[in-house]
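Holo model, FE2/S2 (inorganic) cluster. Inputs:
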Amino acid sequence: MLAAAPRESGFFRFAGHDHGSEMPRVIFHDTNGRRVEVQAPVGNTAMEAAVDNGVSGVVAECGGACACATCHGYVAEEWLPRLKPMEEMEDAMLDAAEGRRATSRLLCQIEINPELDGLEITVADNGG
Ligand code: FES
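Output:
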């Protein structure tokens, strides 16, 4: 019989900080003016984290294929250097998006990892 893997004791987690967690926090400012703090599984995208938690304004028409730009958001400036640089395709899609800024990214191209705990994103007007 397979024994369950021992879980982290939790001893160092009591203070409420969750750095290095498998469920990093992502803070969205949605198109309804709400601040929505979610926990996103590592390996999911910021788009999935938004859609799964009912963050308004993330339409994600293409389902994450980098082909629609309706997951456009503005990443808080201090987080930009911690994201992987964008690929040409994302850049081209953003050129076609409304309201592109220097902080613009497609949320389906941001993969959540433990170092992104606390990532803050304002959802753009994606027409949804
Ligand atoms: S969901 Fe379509 S480009 Fe991100």
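The longest helix spans residues 88-96. Strands lie at 25-29, 35-39, 72-75, 104-106, 119-123.
Archived with the compound record.
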